[in-house]
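Anyone up for a design puzzle?
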């Protein structure tokens, strides 16, 4: 795995974490090992690493049986184009899961009870959402429990993964934090094999920023086709539109180079299908989204398929109430190469009634962002 410019440049806590991360090799997970005691013994019964997703889902549901029912969302079939290439479909999930340190410390969700933000609740809700949809490719942002929870639990289910922390994660400024948050990309090893992976620290005007991306090149075991997948999380907040645009341009440049490297015919748009999942912190009309739509990589947003005209994003992918007011926006996307991938189904969005008057997060949903889930297939090569 190649790593592109992820350097420790923060305060003492950042440097300490980075030093530990680079000097202490993490052991490979053992088949019969268990998670930390807090994860295994809280609530009813004991959650252990389990290779059966149905059993693990049952344990999550049992731990959550006193909470309100989860959102009921349906998969909408959107493919009107005809047959797919041999090799079948694959499922992709994009989700900003809300860093635990930010949820409890910095994000100030004024209508969300503190009990609903506790890790003892949220870890089960997050795993339940993932296990319910069982994606073959899982792209997550704001991950600050990668090493102690998500990597070992999902590895037991057959996922391989890569994690890239933010250089100056705001989580490190929260007392009792679990380390920096970052982006993580998981893939089902029974469906895909790894060809290449790179962690990127995004730049703006040639200057490194605090935002990162994980880019992975995979090969489908069913079809033999290559697939380039990226997960990212761009700069938040109003007033930083120019920075998000520059970060998006930098990511597109890296993607162009990587697919070119793995394209036998030097034609990345045709030979290496591309998926880019992320919390862009940008509404659909923002410049960074226009850059992705008009790039030479031939990208489109999968969730437009839910609209009647096929060209309009959902009304929202995040809905929260902070001291500054209520925010209901579309900020999250699954971009795909429209000439080489076909969107088969899209998970619809919950209604305002389902979300409730206190918005997100809540006792029945662990993040302020909604998960996006799509089934894709490869188009036949012409």
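Challenge accepted. My sequence:
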């Amino acid at each position: 795995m190649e790593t592109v410019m992820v350097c420790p440049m923060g305060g003492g806590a950042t440097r300490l974490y980075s030093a530990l991360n680079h000097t202490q090799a993490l052991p490979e997970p053992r088949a019969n090992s268990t998670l930390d005691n807090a994860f295994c013994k809280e609530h009813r019964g004991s959650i252990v690493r389990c290779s059966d997703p149905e059993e693990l889902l049952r344990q999550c549901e049992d731990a959550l049986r006193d909470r309100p029912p989860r959102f009921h969302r349906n998969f909408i079939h959107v493919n009107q184009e005809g047959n797919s290439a041999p090799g079948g479909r694959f499922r992709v999930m994009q989700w900003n899961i809300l860093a635990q340190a930010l949820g409890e410390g910095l994000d100030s969700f004024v209508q969300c009870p503190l009990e609903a933000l506790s890790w003892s609740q949220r870890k089960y809700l997050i795993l339940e959402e993932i296990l319910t949809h069982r994606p073959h490719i899982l792209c997550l942002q704001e991950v600050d429990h990668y090493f102690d929870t998500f990597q070992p639990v999902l590895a037991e289910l057959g996922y391989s993964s890569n994690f890239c922390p933010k250089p100056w994660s705001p989580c490190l400024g929260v007392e009792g934090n679990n380390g920096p948050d970052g982006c993580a990309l998981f893939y089902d090893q029974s469906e895909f094999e790894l060809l290449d992976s790179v962690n990127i620290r995004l730049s703006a005007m040639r200057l490194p920023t605090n935002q990162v991306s994980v880019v992975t090149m995979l090969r489908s075991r069913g079809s033999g086709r290559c697939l380039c997948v990226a997960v990212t999380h761009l700069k938040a907040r109003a007033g930083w539109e120019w920075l998000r645009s520059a970060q998006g341009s930098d990511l597109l440049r890296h993607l162009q180079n990587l697919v070119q490297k793995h394209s036998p015919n030097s034609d990345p748009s045709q030979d290496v299908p591309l998926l880019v999942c992320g919390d862009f912190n940008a509404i659909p009309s923002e410049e960074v989204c226009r850059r992705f739509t008009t790039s030479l990589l031939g990208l489109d947003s999968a969730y437009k398929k839910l609209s009647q005209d096929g060209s309009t994003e959902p009304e929202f992918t995040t809905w929260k109430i902070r001291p500054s007011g209520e925010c209901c926006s579309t900020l999250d996307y699954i971009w795909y190469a429209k000439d080489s991938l076909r969107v088969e189904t899209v998970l619809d969005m919950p209604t305002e009634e389902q979300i409730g008057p206190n918005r997100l997060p809540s006792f029945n949903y662990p993040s302020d962002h909604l998960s996006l889930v799509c089934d894709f297939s490869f188009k036949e090569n012409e």
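A detail worth pointing out: The two ends are 32 Å apart (CA to CA).
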